[in-house]
Design a protein that fits this description.
The protein is α+β, with helices and mostly antiparallel strands and 439 residues long. It has 14 helices and 19 strands. A six-stranded mixed β-sheet has the order 8-2-1-12-19-18, sandwiched between helices. Strand 1, helix 1 and strand 2 form a beta-alpha-beta unit. Helix 1 packs parallel to helix 14 and helix 10 packs antiparallel against helix 11.
Length: 439
């Protein structure tokens, strides 16, 4: 009788690998390593997993550290959710991209072939003249013919200089700060065009909004930790990696021997651990600048927004660019999240002044019919290092640090700004580098 067929061993079978950091990049890395049969230990300095996309508890009504959204183009992130046992349709509310204000101005992308859908959305943009809409379409065609490429030193403001001011104010500036969390006059045009290409022109549904129905912990952090535990991997919280040394072809991390190490923590913490092995890599990581994001959770049971994600006009006295209705997508009823991107000025103003200005903005722009009196602030969340400042010519640290020592994270070199998809894709590159070094 023929012997039973044996499954081929994975490329990292039996290899011991440490992953430093349990944010989305670290968890994605750990899952991919386990799938390649590595013996994985994850070390997280904080008490909670999830990094900058986490919940403050396992409670079904827990507050997230900030309002996050996904889009249909986040293919690797959606695949990771499925691999760890979460169906995206159970935890994410999907709808066509809509950037509309309470007064009805703005656009919504219809379904269909992306270039045609984009053209229809622009031509149906309420609040722009026909000439302004035509100018936007001409510029989009020019970007497409150039392969959505431009000089690496160009800002979004320079790229869009030919456009009428109304187009820049009503469309480009909100898109830029939402996607890159960097003002248009400082943001990288090259990265902006890549985002436009992959979201607006990436394929059917690539631009769709995916809004969390559940706390962020239920999307990936909790399911991933459970899945990793079932596969024999270890996840240790409240364990800051202290010292990393090289021991021949192996690594010693806090007295434990590993064949490979993945630095999936923040850029500065990664720089500290990597400095003895590549000072140039560490200097590049430490040089990165950051932009804050403020999320203000407001309790307003009687509020009725025109859409689950409603755009707002920001300005000197108006902090927020968007407001989200959690109850409308199946989350906590009556909870609304106001998001302030590129929030450095408002962080300096303080939580009280910023919250008061945001509530005034809501009353003025949403109107008393949609935003009745009685709203109260539930929680004020300021993520001071929410994203790196996505500026032209930014030199991000590479995946490879040293043989068997690699880095993952949304700050690591790649085509995207600081997003969940960027973090997950960086994990793919880090694991590929380890397989090449150890497999």
């Amino acid at each position: 009788m023929a012997g039973a067929l044996r499954r081929p061993l994975g490329p990292l079978s039996g290899r011991r690998v440490a992953v430093v950091g349990a944010g989305w990049a670290g968890l994605a890395t750990a899952v991919a390593l386990v799938e390649r049969e590595a013996r994985v230990t994850v070390l997280e300095a904080g008490p909670l997993v999830g990094g900058r996309a986490r919940s403050d508890s396992a409670d079904p009504e827990a507050f997230d550290n900030g309002q996050h959204i996904l889009i249909g183009a986040y293919t690797r992130t959606l695949d990771l959710l499925r691999r760890t046992g979460t169906l995206p349709e159970d935890v994410l509310w999907r709808c066509p991209l809509s950037l509309r204000h309470a007064d009805g101005t703005g656009l919504t992308l219809p379904e269909g072939w992306p270039p045609l859908a984009f053209a229809r959305a622009i031509m149906g943009f309420v609040g722009l003249s026909w000439g302004e809409r035509a100018a936007m379409l001409r510029e989009a065609i020019r970007w497409s013919l150039a392969g959505f490429e431009c000089g690496g030193e160009m800002t979004v403001a320079t790229l869009c200089q030919p456009l009428p001011q109304a187009v820049r104010v009503r469309l480009i500036d909100p898109l830029c700060v939402a996607a890159l969390n960097t003002p248009a006059d400082k943001a990288s045009a090259r990265v902006f065009l890549r985002v436009i290409k992959d979201s607006m022109f990436g394929g059917q549904g690539s631009s769709d909004l995916l809004l969390p129905r559940r706390p962020l912990a239920e999307l990936l952090p909790v399911p991933a930790v459970s899945w990793l535990g079932q596969q024999g991997a270890r996840v240790e919280t409240v364990h800051r990696a202290r010292e990393l040394t090289r021991e021949g072809a192996a690594w010693d991390l806090d007295g434990q021997r590993y064949d490979g190490v993945v630095l999936a923590c923040g850029a500065r913490e990664s720089a500290r651990l990597a400095r003895p092995f590549d000072s140039h890599w560490s200097a590049r990581a430490e040089a990165m600048q950051y932009e804050p994001i403020v999320t203000i959770y407001v309790r307003a049971p009687a509020a009725r927004l025109p859409a689950p994600m409603t755009a707002l006009f920001d300005g000197p006295d108006h902090p927020a660019q968007f407001v989200f209705d959690h109850g409308a997508v199946g989350g906590t009823p009556g909870r609304h999240a106001f998001v302030i991107s590129g929030a450095a000025r408002w962080v300096e103003a303080g939580s009280s002044a910023t919250a008061d200005a945001t509530l005034r903005q809501a009353r003025e722009q949403l109107g008393s019919a949609r935003w009745p009196a009685g709203a109260s602030v539930e929680s004020f969340r300021a993520e001071r290092r929410a994203t790196f400042s996505c500026t032209p010519g930014l030199q991000r640290p590479s995946t490879q640090v040293a043989p068997g020592l690699v880095a993952a994270g949304d700050h690591v070199e790649g085509p995207y700004p600081a997003t969940l998809e960027g973090a997950v894709r960086s994990a793919d590159l880090a694991v590929a580098a380890l397989v090449a070094a150890l497999g």
